[in-house]
TrEMBL record:
<keyword id="KW-1003">Cell membrane</keyword>
<feature type="transmembrane region" description="Helical">
    <location>
        <begin position="213"/>
        <end position="231"/>
    </location>
</feature>
<keyword id="KW-0472">Membrane</keyword>
<feature type="transmembrane region" description="Helical">
    <location>
        <begin position="75"/>
        <end position="95"/>
    </location>
</feature>
<dbReference type="Pfam" id="PF00892">
    <property type="entry name" value="EamA"/>
</dbReference>
<dbReference type="InterPro" id="IPR051258">
    <property type="entry name" value="Diverse_Substrate_Transporter"/>
</dbReference>
<feature type="domain" description="EamA">
    <location>
        <begin position="155"/>
        <end position="284"/>
    </location>
</feature>
<feature type="transmembrane region" description="Helical">
    <location>
        <begin position="42"/>
        <end position="63"/>
    </location>
</feature>
<feature type="transmembrane region" description="Helical">
    <location>
        <begin position="243"/>
        <end position="263"/>
    </location>
</feature>
<feature type="transmembrane region" description="Helical">
    <location>
        <begin position="152"/>
        <end position="171"/>
    </location>
</feature>
<feature type="transmembrane region" description="Helical">
    <location>
        <begin position="127"/>
        <end position="146"/>
    </location>
</feature>
<keyword id="KW-0812">Transmembrane</keyword>
<dbReference type="InterPro" id="IPR000620">
    <property type="entry name" value="EamA_dom"/>
</dbReference>
<feature type="domain" description="EamA">
    <location>
        <begin position="12"/>
        <end position="143"/>
    </location>
</feature>
<feature type="transmembrane region" description="Helical">
    <location>
        <begin position="101"/>
        <end position="120"/>
    </location>
</feature>
<dbReference type="InterPro" id="IPR037185">
    <property type="entry name" value="EmrE-like"/>
</dbReference>
<feature type="transmembrane region" description="Helical">
    <location>
        <begin position="9"/>
        <end position="30"/>
    </location>
</feature>
Length: 301
């Protein structure tokens, strides 16, 4: 009986994090649909700016208490995040296969230890060294289907993964000193500012917005961005990092599954093997977290 309450809290957190992966995956569908009417940079900018404003409303008390240094650190990460997301949305704009794109983007998780080692001289674990060749082998299978002719979308997704991995690292450093809600509001808003600024110089904006454009934008803002970030922040405060890490790596599997039903996508054998190797690299990279999660599951049962 004394263990029931903690187990209930952990189970609730796991279910919320699972919901986060579903929301993140379905957000790919919303974004792809929105790009039928929106220029890509205008869409991602508007989406994130509106989501940032939504989070800034409840986060206003925390925002008012931030120091100049906290604003500077949060803004730096936000600008980098904006460049990363602008690259990602261009990849999505040119993509012909969302499932494949989601697995390539998920490489950001595997690249974090490598970039930490290269730029910050942080020691890489044995699991990270094993995960890297698996990840690049999977990427190779995806890009070498017809000889060495990687698609533009694949190059953009991989570039976004590199930028996102650096964002994760800097975000972790900023999050240690800035309240989560305030940090999220600043970062999402700055993604919007960066993308809209790029859009103003590079894209032709539509003369009017149709009902479909508004529909997919609102879904992307509320469900795919604001709700996802809020639920993830709340759930991660209820559980251990190992639980969160294990569950969140499921996102590309959901994305590929939804894309198969939504857009009637299918994968060739080489694509399946490539995505499978990337997913295996995610598990290997988080093996210590996976092992802790499996241990806790066994104890709870």
């Amino acid at each position: 009986m004394p263990h029931s309450a903690p187990n209930t809290v952990v189970f609730k957190a796991d279910m919320l994090l699972l919901l986060v992966t579903v929301l993140a995956a379905i957000s790919w569908m919303f974004s792809k649909e929105a790009l039928n009417g929106f220029p890509p940079l205008l869409f991602i900018g508007t989406r994130f700016l509106m989501a940032g404003i939504l989070l800034a409303i409840p986060g206003m008390p925390a925002l008012k208490k931030l120091t100049k240094h906290q604003w500077k650190a949060s803004s730096a990460v936000g600008v980098l995040f904006g460049i990363a997301m602008s690259t990602w949305i261009m990849g999505l704009f040119y993509a012909t296969h969302l499932g494949e794109g989601s697995f390539i983007t998920s490489l950001a998780v595997v690249l974090v230890p490598l970039i930490s080692w290269v730029f910050f001289r942080e020691r890489m674990t044995r699991a990270s060294w094993i995960a890297l060749p698996l990840a690049f082998a999977g990427l190779g299978l995806l890009s070498l289907q017809h000889g060495f002719r990687p698609e533009l979308s694949q190059l953009l997704f991989f570039t976004a993964a590199i930028l996102l991995s650096l964002t994760f690292i800097l975000n972790g450093r900023a999050a240690a000193h800035v309240p989560a809600l305030a940090l999220s509001a600043i970062q999402l808003s700055l993604v919007g500012v960066v993308a809209i600024a790029l859009s103003a110089g590079l894209e032709e904006w539509p003369a009017h917005w149709t009902g479909d454009m508004w529909w997919w934008l609102i879904l992307s803002v509320t469900v795919g961005t604001a709700a996802r970030f809020l639920i993830q922040t709340y759930a991660q405060g209820m559980t251990t990092p190992s639980h969160a890490a294990v569950i969140l790596i499921i996102e590309p599997v959901w994305t590929a599954t939804f894309a198969a039903f939504w857009f009637n996508e299918s994968m060739s054998v080489s694509q399946l093997f490539g995505c499978g190797l990337i997913f295996l690299s995610l598990i290997v990279n988080r093996w210590s977290a996976v092992r802790q999660w499996l241990t806790s599951v066994r104890k709870s049962t």
